[in-house]
Design brief:
The chain is mainly β and 87 residues long. It has one domain (18-86). Helices cover 0% and strands 32% of the residues. It has strands at residues 20-22, 37-39, 44-50, 55-60, 65-66, 70-73, 84-86. A hairpin with a 4-residue loop joins strand 3 (44-50) and strand 4 (55-60). The chain starts with 19 loop residues before the first strand and ends with a strand. The model has no long low-confidence stretch (mean pLDDT 91).
Length: 87
């Protein structure tokens, strides 16, 4: 569904997310599409692979937002739950 009010405008990384995906962390599978930010319902660590291929463990507070572009959220090293990827 497109929003006719914004037809013809470019989407910028600073714009609000237009897609959401509830994440099941996996050591073997990338997200269905790259995310530009993550949030979580329950605070904890999130191990990710960035779009550039770097692997790092980050901390997210409940309801906080991690403005990182990622392609994978790892099961190993991830303790946060209720993770949602935004694009």
């Amino acid at each position: 569904m497109t929003n006719p009010d914004f037809t013809g405008y470019d989407v910028d990384l600073a714009d609000p997310a237009t897609r959401l995906h509830e994440v099941t962390p996996s050591d073997d599978t990338d997200l269905p599409w790259p995310a530009r930010a993550l949030t979580a319902l329950v605070e904890g660590n999130v191990r990710v692979t960035s779009l550039g291929g770097d692997v790092a463990t980050l901390h997210v507070f409940a309801g906080g937002c991690l403005p990182v572009q990622v392609r994978r959220v790892w099961a190993s090293g991830t303790t946060a739950t209720g993770i949602v990827a935004m694009a």
